[in-house]
Amino acid sequence: MQIAPKGEQARSNAALPKARTLIEALPWLERFHGKTVVIKFGGNAMVDEDLKAAFAQDVVFLRYAGLHPVVVHGGGPQISAQLDKLGLESSFTAGLRVTTPETMDVVRMVLAGQVQRELVGLLNTHGPFAVGMTGEDAHTMTAVKRYAVVDGEQVDIGLVGDIVNIEAGAVKALIADGRIPVISSIARGADGHVYNINADTAASALAAALGAEMLVVLTDVEGLYKDWPNSDDVISQLTASELEEMLPTLASGMLPKMEGCLRAVRSGVGTARVLDGRVQHSLLLEIFTDEGIGTMVVPDDDTTVLGGLA
């Protein structure tokens, strides 16, 4: 019997953690093969070059691993920067961007012409996968005008919309063709106007319409905190009813994300996640490891207690 030299044994042993990582991913690969994952792309992950590249790698990895990723994106920082450059006012009411017709022109230009194209390009450095579209295309998303509520009163904030219908046929056709849809969160209304849609809301509605296994929301915090700002302990898992009870206490920035998660699981999506997009490869850490790194929202009848995906 031949005995490997000590140097070769050392190299072999050093590689063992990589093998263990792959084996840890096996149950999740089996469970989610062929399932649809809707990912809301936002926060610092959108403006940091290294994070953008890592996100693109994660999404393509999901595709090669047999999952069906769908990306929905906004572009708040980029829109604000372009408005400033053009000398147009950028203001918010109740956490929503006041969207005049002039602002809406900028929103469409930035989302479909800048953010989406950059993300499609990053994904397609790994293969001919990504196809960009907007909620306007093929009537994928139909919206109605949305009003902000301030002190119990409705406030007109312009061309801001809520989604009332999803026609997911075009997205399903791209998935069936092995593509990765990349969708900008703008939608046309029956009144002919084009509306600016909160990307968290758009991702939630699309996940429900696609019957997705999971909704993943990337943001700039570690997850949902138990008692912010008094504590930075993150809730690893909670039910839809538990989340519903917490909604009135949430900060305005977190509210639409968690409302979207609640709406998704109440509409048949298997689980909804909030992840820290500032962590490189957070998608893979959440989906393919036992511990997970974010907050998971599960239906009320789900008895799973896991750090990773249910």
UniProtKB/TrEMBL annotation:
Keywords: Amino-acid biosynthesis, Arginine biosynthesis, ATP-binding, Cytoplasm, Kinase, Nucleotide-binding, Transferase. Pathway: Amino-acid biosynthesis; L-arginine biosynthesis; N(2)-acetyl-L-ornithine from L-glutamate: step 2/4. It catalyses: N-acetyl-L-glutamate + ATP = N-acetyl-L-glutamyl 5-phosphate + ADP. The record marks K40, K257 as: Transition state stabilizer. It holds the Pfam family AA_kinase. Its EC number is 2.7.2.8. This is Acetylglutamate kinase. Residues 35-275 form the Aspartate/glutamate/uridylate kinase domain. It is an enzyme of class 2 (transferase). PANTHER family: N-ACETYLGLUTAMATE SYNTHASE, N-ACETYLGLUTAMATE SYNTHASE, MITOCHONDRIAL. Catalyzes the ATP-dependent phosphorylation of N-acetyl-L-glutamate. One of its GO terms (cellular component) is cytoplasm. Belongs to the acetylglutamate kinase family. ArgB subfamily. GO terms for molecular function: acetylglutamate kinase activity; ATP binding. InterPro entries: AceGlu_kinase-like_sf, AcgluKinase_fam, ArgB, Asp/Glu/Uridylate_kinase, Glu/AcGlu_kinase, NAGK-C. GO terms for biological process: L-arginine biosynthetic process via ornithine. It comes from Kitasatospora cheerisanensis KCTC 2395. Substrate binds at G75, G76, R97, N196. The keyword Transit peptide does not apply. It comes from the Bacteria. NCBIfam families: argB. It is found in: Cytoplasm.
